[in-house]
Design goal:
This protein is an all-alpha fold. The chain contains 13 helices and 2 strands; from the N terminus they run ααααββααααααααα. A two-stranded antiparallel sheet has the order 1-2. The radius of gyration is 25 Å and the shape is globular.
Length: about 325
């Protein structure tokens, strides 16, 4: 019965996810094409040197990639190609979009993964200690810095960290070196500032939510019962209190993943010059590179929908009282 419920729920959510993804694809496809310029316009700067007529070259490029057709024909052609695994051609980089994404997704992945791990571990530990030592100096300091961490924009923090640690102290490079092997010690070193930039806000949020959830459960009757039985305090805190406080934390962490996929990680990549999906999407917007913008937006939407699905399933396993009809 449990497996049947879970299977039916996943199928239903995947169906809804496909509808939402189709809506995101359609809206993005239309919006990027209502602008006054065309991807072919980027070639105008080179036309004078070659002695070619701008209008003729732009018309030839648009005809080659089907940009001269009506919008509905472009849409039908794009969706058909997408179903067959063809994500289009990037005019700004002169390569297939799928190859561009395969090359750059790993940079976004490592930044998001390391930032989330750092923020979750440090934020949850500080939140637990702050709740157990409520109204102590440590609690006040943790609360103060958590408010600051939430309030600081990550792009501003990134610029300040570069000015201090890279420009003034010379401890880190001012740019991201793609020649360094991924997941090597040298690569981890150059990711320290980006990870701090992206993880600070999340860490502050996890500290506050953990402290609040822990304090709420510390006042429950089952905690007094556990202590009355003579259980060690570490068992009471770890097994009873934190276990019941972890459910809202899972929600916050999972939804944070969705938000940083769309926002924080992209801004951090731009500030530090990391060639991830956010950076190539940023460049594609200014180059009117339709195919890249649509592809990155669609991938981000799918990731958010997948994260939401995993969060809902995790809810049911962490709390047996929760069931979805």
């Amino acid at each position: 019965m449990e497996k049947t419920w879970l299977r039916d729920y996943i199928i239903k959510r995947l169906f809804y996810a496909l509808i939402i993804a189709w809506g995101v694809l359609t809206v993005t496809f239309i919006l990027v094409r209502v602008g006054p310029t065309s991807p072919a316009d980027k070639y105008l700067a080179n036309l004078a040197a070659r002695g070619e007529e701008p209008a003729q070259v732009i018309a030839a490029i648009e005809a080659r990639y089907g940009l001269d057709k009506p919008l509905y024909e472009q849409y039908a052609s794009y969706v058909g190609n997408l179903v067959r695994g063809d994500w289009g051609w990037s005019l700004s980089t002169s390569m297939p979009v799928i190859e561009l994404i395969k090359t750059h997704w790993i940079y976004s992945f490592q930044l998001i993964l390391l930032s989330t791990i750092l923020a979750a571990l440090v934020g949850i530990l500080i939140g637990i200690y702050s709740a157990v030592r409520q109204y102590s100096k440590t609690d006040y300091i943790a609360t103060f810095f958590s408010f600051i961490g939430i309030s600081i924009p990550n792009f501003w923090l990134g610029v300040m960290l570069i000015l201090l640690f890279s420009v003034q102290l010379g401890l880190f490079k001012t740019y991201y070196d793609t020649g360094v092997p991924l997941f090597s010690l040298a690569n981890l070193k150059q990711l320290i500032l980006p990870v701090i930039t992206l993880g600070t806000g999340m860490m502050a949020g996890y500290t506050r939510y953990t402290r609040s959830a822990m304090l709420d459960n510390l006042r429950k009757d089952f905690v007094r019962t556990a202590r009355a039985k003579g259980l060690p305090e570490r068992v009471v805190i770890g097994k009873h209190v934190f276990r019941n406080a972890v459910l809202p934390l899972v929600t916050i962490i999972m939804f944070d993943l969705g938000s940083i996929v769309f926002g924080g990680a992209y801004l951090t990549e731009i500030v530090f010059g990391i060639p991830g999906l956010g950076r190539i999407s940023f460049n594609a917007v200014f180059a009117d590179d339709y195919a890249v913008v649509v592809a990155v937006t669609l991938i981000s939407a799918f990731l958010v929908l997948l994260i939401n699905l995993v969060t809902d399933i995790a809810y049911a396993y962490l709390d047996p009282r929760i069931r979805y009809d």
